[in-house]
Amino acid sequence: MYLVTAQEMRDLDRYTIEHIGIPGVVLMERAGLAVAQAITEHFAQPGQAVVLSGHGNNGGDGFVVARHLAMAGWRTTVWLVGSEDRMTTDTRTFYEVCRQLGLDVKTFGPERRDELRRWLETADVVVDALLGTGIRGAVRPATEMVIRLVNDHARGRVVAVDVPSGVETDTGRVASVAIKADQTVTFAYAKWCHYLRPGAEYCGEVVVTDIGIPPSVAACRRPAARVNHPQWWREYLKPRSRWAHKGTHGHLLVVGGSRGMLGAVAMAGTAALRAGAGLVTIAVPEGQHDPLAAKVTEALVWAWPGDGQGRFAPGSAGRIGERLNRLTAVAVGPGLGRFTGEREWLSELLRQTDLPMVLDADALNVLADHSDILAHRKGERILTPHPGEMARLTGTDTARVEEERYRVAKEWAQRHGVTVVLKGTYTIIAFPDGTQMVNPTGSPSMAKAGSGDLLTGIIGALLAQKIPPSAAVPMGVYVHGLAGELAVTSVEHSVIASDILMQVGPAFHRLLSDRVRT
């Protein structure tokens, strides 16, 4: 499934109308019918509906909703919040249909505030078809008044048409006020605001419905973003051959684990094995070899020169060359720590190999101070920052990163020629070519120390199996989130990273089972 901006959706609509030949009124009819069906499927029997329609095309969808609800036996009242004179051609068509059918159509004005409030207090469902995808900035006073009435007085289910009114489609911003919906029924493709705060918090359940735009239209006008889904990388998700051996599935090197932080590198290495890597070697500073070797039994442990304080010595990165021909991918950062000579150390790692490399944790903090060393890279580089690390990389603060998630990730990926995995609710994957993915899997249970180390290991394992980064990264993020969901067996509060680790196998099993069924 694609993920579109308001302009991309307008372009797709226009292409469908002008080049495919499907009239706009047909698309509007299909959209309104889809919303009406979502409502009738939720309720066992008809009730009372209030439909709030603006004068734009979103309002036209609302008039279609009202007609179909009335035909299904609902007691339906439509409120026009806007100007009849400013209606679009298609909206006017369905407005006149409602009037010809004798539906109760009222025009809102501030003097009718109390009347609308009474209707909202008794309605079983309120349909928000006020603004749609076109809003930018604050809403007009009359519309703001209606939105506040809905939020304060609606007692029934609130269903938004396409986008909750007041939410900016491309950013999720709410400049003044927005409808707080229980469900949002959107058309053809999801919109960015369905995944970006604060807008996503206003959407409720998001349902994407087909309105008749042919798949070939997206092929001609391909959107720049997608919702992460197995359809994009399923070809690389295959059962194991009975003739496979450990060398068949790659060899990942995980580098990190300074004194006091061995747990991070152990978790990453173990996650890599759970994600299918045939071999995992963990490189740690001298002095940390024996404690780690006692902790992990499946991975190899490799000691690099240390600084005597439990951290890597400045020149130790050169050791990677000794076993480079045995490796197929590298992950750097879990439990790495900060140390003297870290810039030259990381630069040397980047120069030494053209193998795909995941950079996380303190490797990102080194890059934040010395981003110029990315120019030394030879191969694919995947960065997996949380919002705080992304803020350090961009020289801003966490609040701005959260406000501009998809823009920040996209700009940094393009500027530096790397893949950025900006972690969080609805993790964003930004590729160096400007395309992006938003990941739908995950759980609040994953907001625990160690969860990010698991992701590093999972992505590293998939890269080690020679899956292209364009598939390995979204697959790893999806599996990681699914494992987090499966780990919740009682309450989200109690999940720890090792619980998520234990669900990596079941997550792959579920995906492989789905693949067999499809």
Automatic annotation (TrEMBL):
<feature type="binding site">
    <location>
        <position position="165"/>
    </location>
    <ligand>
        <name>K(+)</name>
    </ligand>
</feature>
<dbReference type="InterPro" id="IPR004443">
    <property type="entry name" value="YjeF_N_dom"/>
</dbReference>
<keyword id="KW-0520">NAD</keyword>
<keyword id="KW-0511">Multifunctional enzyme</keyword>
<comment type="similarity">
    <text>Belongs to the NnrD/CARKD family.</text>
</comment>
<dbReference type="Pfam" id="PF01256">
    <property type="entry name" value="Carb_kinase"/>
</dbReference>
<dbReference type="Pfam" id="PF03853">
    <property type="entry name" value="YjeF_N"/>
</dbReference>
<feature type="binding site">
    <location>
        <position position="264"/>
    </location>
    <ligand>
        <name>(6S)-NADPHX</name>
    </ligand>
</feature>
<keyword id="KW-0479">Metal-binding</keyword>
<feature type="binding site">
    <location>
        <position position="386"/>
    </location>
    <ligand>
        <name>(6S)-NADPHX</name>
    </ligand>
</feature>
<feature type="binding site">
    <location>
        <begin position="57"/>
        <end position="61"/>
    </location>
    <ligand>
        <name>(6S)-NADPHX</name>
    </ligand>
</feature>
<keyword id="KW-0630">Potassium</keyword>
<dbReference type="InterPro" id="IPR036652">
    <property type="entry name" value="YjeF_N_dom_sf"/>
</dbReference>
<feature type="binding site">
    <location>
        <position position="335"/>
    </location>
    <ligand>
        <name>(6S)-NADPHX</name>
    </ligand>
</feature>
<comment type="function">
    <text>Bifunctional enzyme that catalyzes the epimerization of the S- and R-forms of NAD(P)HX and the dehydration of the S-form of NAD(P)HX at the expense of ADP, which is converted to AMP. This allows the repair of both epimers of NAD(P)HX, a damaged form of NAD(P)H that is a result of enzymatic or heat-dependent hydration.</text>
</comment>
<dbReference type="InterPro" id="IPR000631">
    <property type="entry name" value="CARKD"/>
</dbReference>
<feature type="binding site">
    <location>
        <begin position="423"/>
        <end position="427"/>
    </location>
    <ligand>
        <name>AMP</name>
    </ligand>
</feature>
<keyword id="KW-0521">NADP</keyword>
<protein>
    <recommendedName>
        <fullName>Bifunctional NAD(P)H-hydrate repair enzyme</fullName>
        <ecNumber>4.2.1.136</ecNumber>
        <ecNumber>5.1.99.6</ecNumber>
    </recommendedName>
</protein>
<dbReference type="InterPro" id="IPR030677">
    <property type="entry name" value="Nnr"/>
</dbReference>
<comment type="function">
    <text>Catalyzes the epimerization of the S- and R-forms of NAD(P)HX, a damaged form of NAD(P)H that is a result of enzymatic or heat-dependent hydration. This is a prerequisite for the S-specific NAD(P)H-hydrate dehydratase to allow the repair of both epimers of NAD(P)HX.</text>
</comment>
<feature type="domain" description="YjeF C-terminal">
    <location>
        <begin position="229"/>
        <end position="511"/>
    </location>
</feature>
<feature type="binding site">
    <location>
        <position position="452"/>
    </location>
    <ligand>
        <name>AMP</name>
    </ligand>
</feature>
<feature type="domain" description="YjeF N-terminal">
    <location>
        <begin position="9"/>
        <end position="219"/>
    </location>
</feature>
<keyword id="KW-0547">Nucleotide-binding</keyword>
<comment type="similarity">
    <text>In the C-terminal section; belongs to the NnrD/CARKD family.</text>
</comment>
<keyword id="KW-0413">Isomerase</keyword>
<keyword id="KW-0067">ATP-binding</keyword>
<feature type="binding site">
    <location>
        <begin position="132"/>
        <end position="138"/>
    </location>
    <ligand>
        <name>(6S)-NADPHX</name>
    </ligand>
</feature>
<feature type="binding site">
    <location>
        <position position="128"/>
    </location>
    <ligand>
        <name>K(+)</name>
    </ligand>
</feature>
<comment type="subunit">
    <text>Homotetramer.</text>
</comment>
<dbReference type="InterPro" id="IPR029056">
    <property type="entry name" value="Ribokinase-like"/>
</dbReference>
<feature type="binding site">
    <location>
        <position position="162"/>
    </location>
    <ligand>
        <name>(6S)-NADPHX</name>
    </ligand>
</feature>
<keyword id="KW-0456">Lyase</keyword>
<feature type="binding site">
    <location>
        <position position="453"/>
    </location>
    <ligand>
        <name>(6S)-NADPHX</name>
    </ligand>
</feature>
<feature type="binding site">
    <location>
        <position position="58"/>
    </location>
    <ligand>
        <name>K(+)</name>
    </ligand>
</feature>
